[in-house]
């Protein structure tokens, strides 16, 4: 937000904010390639039951039901918050770098380390 959308302010301050906002927009729009996070959710269409849970719970309105009748997540729009992943009743969504098997393996490793520390005390 900038200008009067931000809060009531004098015109010179609004103009300065508008120029800064335009500068930031140009920086994004002029880039040939944009890098995004690799932590994004991906749907396994074979498991999706089209229950709409992810569509309703995503705070960024990213998941949609596509022409094939299953959920689809545009990875460039996903913020990687993981809410849809945890809410999906069919476990059809996995968050890249935080897949179930990865989280379970990390948790087991942590518990093993903790157990070893306790045993050595
Ligand atoms: S929550 Fe899971 S099962 Fe339901 S529409 Fe989304 S991906 Fe499909
Ligand atoms: S990970 Fe978060 S932002 Fe991405 S689709 Fe799921 S709920 Fe939306």
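Q: What amino acid sequence fits the structure above?
A:
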């Amino acid at each position: 937000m900038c200008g009067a959308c931000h809060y009531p302010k004098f015109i010179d301050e609004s103009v300065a904010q508008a120029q800064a906002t335009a500068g930031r927009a140009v920086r994004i729009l002029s880039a040939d390639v944009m890098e995004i996070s690799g932590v994004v959710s991906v749907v396994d269409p074979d498991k999706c039951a089209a229950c709409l849970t992810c569509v309703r719970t995503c705070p960024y309105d990213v998941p949609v039901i596509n022409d094939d009748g299953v959920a689809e997540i545009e990875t460039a729009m996903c913020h990687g918050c993981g809410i849809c992943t945890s809410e999906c009743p069919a476990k059809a969504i996995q968050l890249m770098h935080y897949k179930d098997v990865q989280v379970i393996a990390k948790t087991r490793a942590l518990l093993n380390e903790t157990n070893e520390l306790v045993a050595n005390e």
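Q: And what stands out in the fold?
A: The chain has two domains: 1-33, 41-120.
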